Amino acid sequence: MIKAMKYTGIVKREPLVKAMAALFSGVLLLGMSQAHAVGDLEKEDLKFGFIKLTDMAPLAIAYEKRFFEDEGLYVTLEAQANWKVLLDRVISGELDGAHMLAGQPLGATIGFGTQAHIITAFSMDLNGNGITVSNEVWEQMKPHIPMENGKPVHPIKADYLKPVVEQYKREGKPFKMGMVFPVSTHNYELRYWLAAGGINPGYYAPHKGDTSGTIGADALLSVTPPPQMPSTMEAGTIHGYCVGEPWNQQAVFKGIGVPVITDYEIWKNNPEKVFGVSQQWADANPNTHKAVIKAMIRAAKWLDDNDNANRPEAVKILSRPEYVGADYDVIANSMTGTFEYEKGDKREVPDFNVFFRYHATYPYYSDAVWYLSQMRRWGQIADPKPDSWYMDIAKKVYRPDLYAEAARELIAEGKMAASDFPDFATETGFRAPQSEFIDGITFDGTRPNAYLESFTIGLKGDEVVK
Question: What is the pTM for the complete model shown?
Answer without folding.
Answer: 0.92
